[in-house]
């Protein structure tokens, strides 16, 4: 069996997020701290990546003071509690190769110390020395005790309601080790 390990290059990797509310949406980025993937006979076998919740940026709010307040709020216990939980982790538990460089993946996502299984599709383009992995992961934030302005927990939110699902668009560049 031909096993090959790849290490995520944090400088070349990025996670983009989109959160939606009744009156629109916000988007930004999160830094990838580290990660690794193992391939066996050129197929994805296992993998894990870690994001730094302290690095969340907001790209669509231009006013510096408002942006700083928003970033501080996302880092607070209302959302990611970044001081206590500076990392979120996705670890692959099962892979199924498909056509066109796609893999159906099941993995454990841990946010705020709470772990839930997530299903997603990964697209992987791989050479001998580099693997580029892209995925869109849709997350129900309420499963990770992120309840702020969720209709599941609060009534009469009107136009202040924030939808429970948010998207992570993951782009990872991993190099062989």
TrEMBL record:
<feature type="domain" description="Lipid/polyisoprenoid-binding YceI-like">
    <location>
        <begin position="5"/>
        <end position="175"/>
    </location>
</feature>
<dbReference type="InterPro" id="IPR036761">
    <property type="entry name" value="TTHA0802/YceI-like_sf"/>
</dbReference>
<dbReference type="InterPro" id="IPR007372">
    <property type="entry name" value="Lipid/polyisoprenoid-bd_YceI"/>
</dbReference>
<protein>
    <submittedName>
        <fullName>Lipid-binding protein</fullName>
    </submittedName>
</protein>
<dbReference type="Pfam" id="PF04264">
    <property type="entry name" value="YceI"/>
</dbReference>
């Amino acid at each position: 069996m031909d096993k090959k390990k790849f290490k995520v290059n944090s400088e070349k990797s990025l996670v983009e997020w989109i959160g939606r509310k009744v009156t629109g949406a916000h988007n930004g980025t999160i830094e990838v701290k580290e990660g690794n993937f193992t391939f066996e006979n050129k197929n994805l076998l296992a993998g894990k990546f870690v994001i730094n919740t302290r690095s969340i940026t907001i790209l669509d709010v231009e006013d510096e003071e408002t942006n700083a307040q928003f970033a501080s709020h996302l880092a607070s216990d209302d959302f990611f509690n970044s001081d206590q939980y500076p990392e979120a982790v996705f670890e692959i538990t099962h892979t199924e190769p498909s056509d066109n460089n796609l893999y159906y993946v099941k993995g454990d996502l841990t946010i705020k110390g709470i772990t839930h299984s997530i299903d997603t599709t990964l697209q992987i383009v791989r050479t001998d020395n580099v693997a580029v992995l892209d995925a869109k992961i849709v997350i129900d934030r309420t499963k990770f005790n992120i309840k702020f302005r969720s209709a599941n927990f609060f009534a009469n939110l009107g136009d202040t309601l924030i939808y429970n699902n948010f998207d992570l668009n993951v782009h990872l560049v991993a190099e062989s080790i």
